[in-house]
Amino acid sequence: MAQNNGFFENPTVKWIEHRLPIFSFLDHSLGSQYPTPRNLNYWWNFGSLAGFMLVVMILSGVFLAMNYTPHVDHAFGSVERIMRDVNYGWLIRYIHMNGASMFFIVVYIHIFRGLYFGSYKPPREILWWLGIVILLLMMATAFMGYVLPWGQMSFWGATVITNLFSAIPLVGDKIVTLLWGGFSVDNATLNRFFALHYLLPFVIAGVVVLHIWALHVHGSNNPLGIDARGPQDKIPFHPYYTVKDAFGLAVFMIFFMFFVFFAPNFFGEPDNYIPANPMVTPAHIVPEWYFLPFYAILRSVTFNILFIDAKLGGVLAMFGSILILFLLPWLDTSRVRSGRFRPVFKVFYWLFFVVCMLLGWVGGQPADATAAGIPLLRIGQVCTFWYFFHFVVVLPLLGWFERPRPLPISISQPVLGGGRIAAAAASKPMEKA
Amino acid sequence: MSRMRKLVVAGALALGLASPGFAAEAPKPPSQSWGFEGLFGTYDRAALQRGYQVYKEVCASCHSLGQIRYRDLGVAPGGIGLGYSEDEVKAIAAEFKVMDGPNDNGEMFERTARPADRLHSPFANEKAARSANNGAYPPDLSLIVEARKNGADYLYALLTGYKDPPAGVTINEGMYYNAWFPGFQIAMGSPLSDDRVTYGDGTKATVSQMARDVTVFLAWASEPNLEQRKAMGLKVILFLIILSGILYAAKRKIWSDVH
Predict the structure, then answer these.
(1) Is B254–A240 a contact, with Cβ atoms under 8 angstroms apart?
(2) How do beta strands A35-37 and A374-375 pair?
(3) Phi/psi at A321 (nearest 5 deg)?
(4) Widest distance between CA atoms in chain B
(5) Between A and B, how many residue pairs show a Cβ–Cβ distance under 8 A?
(6) Which architecture characterizes domain A36-281 according to CATH?
(7) ipTM higher than 0.85?
(8) Assigned fold of B2-68+118-251
(9) Structural domain spans, chain A
(10) Which of A98, A184, B76, B180 is the most exposed place for a label (fewest CB within 10 A)?
C-alpha cells in the first residue's frame, strides 16, 4: 500500500522486529498499514489532539508535582513558589492550568463530532462507552486537580461537590466521610486528592489504549457514515493523516499558547488566588467552566419527585446526564449514521447543542439571577428537561418518522466524482421511513 | 420567585453552603488603560518604584506583602524586578528587623533583614492584625490584583472611590462608604490624600497618581513574570504560525494525489 523507504530492510530494524515486532505494530496502528477512510474532515483531528493533551497534562503535571506540597498549610504557598521562584514554573503551571481547559474543549468537540456523525452506532458501541469512561475519569481528575492549589474555590468547590454524595440514601454520609478522610474537607482530603489526581491520568491512559484498540477493529467512522466498500475508499494513515493531524496540532497550539502566554487566567476564578478559608464562604461558588452545564442540571432540580428529595434528584439528574450517553447507541433508532443525510435530526442536533450552551451559561450565574425578567433557574429547568427529552423521546422517534436523504454508494464516489449532489442522485436510498 | 429563592437557599444550606450576609454586588469599575495590558505590555519602572514607595509609606502599616522578597525589588533574574541597584536593595532591607533562630543556644533573635527575606509584615499573625484593626483583617496584598474581578481597574477604583454615603444609606460604626467595594462598606478608611507621600522624582502626589502607581506596583507583585511571559509568548506564537504554514504546505503536497 505504502512504501516504507526500505525502513524494514534495515538490519538493526530487522533484528529488533524478529524479537519484538514493535515497528510493524506501530505501522499497523498509526502508520502506513492502517487503512483510514479517505474523506475524514477536520472534525476528525480532535481525537489525536485529545491524546496529545493527555500527554501534555501528564508531563506538565509531573514537573509541578516535583515542586508542590500537598499540605493545607503549604499548598497555596508552594504553588506561589512555583509561580515566582521555580525556573519557568509559571510556564509549566499555566500550561497545566490552561491545558485542562484545552483538554475539555478538544474532548467536547470530539464528542459532539461523534454525536453528529453517529460514531456511536454499530459496530462502535464499546468504542463509544470507553469514550464516556474517559470523560468521567477526566472529570474526576480535573475536579481533584482544581482542589490542589488550596484557594477559596478549591476548598469550597471540594466542599460542595463531595457533599453531593451525602444525598445517597443510607450510606451517603459514610461515603462523604470516606472521601474527606475525616469530618470536614481538610488535610486528609487534600492528601488523598493529590494521590488520586496523580493516579487517575494513568488510568485514563489505559482506557485510551482500549479506546484506540476498539477504534482499530472497524476503523474510523467518516462524515458520510457509510462503511468503506473497498481499498479505493481508504488511504494509509501515514502519511496522509499524520500530516493532517500535525497541521491541525500546530493550529491548535496557536490557540492553546495564546491563552498560556496572553490570557493565562482567562478560564480561572479570581477567588482561587485567595488562600482557602473554611470560615469565609465566597459569594458565588462556581465550578470550572467545563462543569457548568452539569452544575446547571444539578441546581435545576428544586422540587421533590415522589420519594426522591430535591437534592438527591439533582444529583441523579447530573450523573444521569452523562450516564444516559451509555444508552445512546440504542436510543438513536435510525440506521443512518451521519447527520448529513438526516434533515430533521440536524435541526434537533443543533437545538441540543444550543441547550447545552445555555445550560453552561446558566450554570455560571448566581442561583437567583434573572435575564430579561426570566429567572435563570427556569431556563435551566427547561434546558434540563430538553436535554433528557432529546435522548429519551426525540432520538428514538426520529429513527421511525424521519425520512433520510439517499446515501451515496461509496466513500470514493463523492470525493472523486462530481460532488455530493451527483453522487446522491446516482445512489439509491438505503433506508425508508 | 420567593419560593424559588427559598428552595435555592435551602439547597445551598443542605450542601453545607451557609451563605454569609448577602453582600450587594458592586458595579463594574470603569476600565483604565494600563501599560502592562496587551500583547506587548510592560510595567513602567518609574511607576513601580513610586508605587513601592506608596506601599511602604502607606499600605505597609497594615498590609503585608508576603510573597515578595527584598531582592525582587532589585533587577532580579530576567530583569523582572523593580530595578533598584543591589546596594539600594540592601539599604531597603536593612531598615527592617526580622526574627530568626533558634541560634546555638536555642534562642530566637532579631537581626537586620537581608535581600533574601520576605518583606516585613506589620503584624505577627492574623489575630494581632484583627485586634489592631477593630476586628477587620487587612489582607496580604501579594495577589490582590489577581484575586479580584477586574483586578487593577477594581483596585484603582477602590482607592479613589471613597465618598459620602448617599442619602438613606447608613454606615456601621468604624466602617466607611466606598462605591466600588462589594456591599459598599469597607473597614479601611480612605488611605490616600493629596501629598500623602513625597515622590523623589518630582511627580505630584495626587490621590489618583498614588492610586495608579500603587496599583501598578501591586499588579507587578501579583505577577512579576508578566513581561517575560509576554515576550516569550510573541516568539512562540510567531514560531507556531510559521510551523502551521509549513505543515499546511506539506499537507497540500502529500494530499495532492488523493483529491
Answers:
(1) yes
(2) unpaired
(3) -65, -25
(4) 84
(5) 121
(6) Up-down Bundle (1.20)
(7) yes
(8) Cytochrome Bc1 Complex; Chain D, domain 2 (1.10.760)
(9) 36-281, 286-402
(10) A184
